[in-house]
Amino acid sequence: MENTKEIELEDAIRISKILSTAPEERLPMILSTLEAAGVMIDGLEALAEWRCLSHPSRLIDLHSFVKNILTHFDDGKNLDFIAIQVKAFDAYCRERNLMPLLVKKTLYEYGILEHSFDGSKLLYSKVVRINGVLMRCVVLKKNVKLKGEENQ
Hints:
The protein has helices at 9-21, 27-36, 44-52, 62-73, 86-95, 100-109, and strands at residues 81-85, 116-118, 121-123, 126-130, 133-141. The protein starts with 8 loop residues before the first helix and ends in an 11-residue tail after the last strand. The strands form two sheets. The chain has a three-stranded antiparallel sheet. 42% of the residues lie in helices and 16% in strands.
C-alpha cells in the first residue's frame, strides 16, 4: 500500500493556482516535481490529460515506439509483460520530445498498456513487485498486434 498524506487547504489552493497559470510546456515538469515530492492529488492526471489534448505531441509511429521501448527496457524475464518504473518511462518519453501522459494514454487506447483503478479513477500505472520491492510501474503487454500487423 502506498503512503498517502492529506495536504492543507492553503497548499491545495497554491498548487491549483500554479497548475492553472502554468504554460503547457511546463506542466510535465510541475507534475513530475509534485510526484517526486510524493504529492498525489486526485484529478491531477485528468488535468494533465485535458491540458495536453491541445498539444501536438502524439505518437507519430506507434509501431516503432513500442519496438524501441521494448528493446530498451526488456530484460527477457517475462514473456508477456514488461514493467518500467514510471520515472524511467517518463524520462524515456521526454528524451524523445513526447509527453509521457499522452504516450500512456495512446498505449492504453491501443490495448498495450495495463492499467489500474484508484476507486473509479483510471491510472496508467500499476504497483508491481520487483526484486521484493513494490514500485509504481508502467506495464506494457509485449505481444499485442497493432493495426497493420495482423497479417505479418
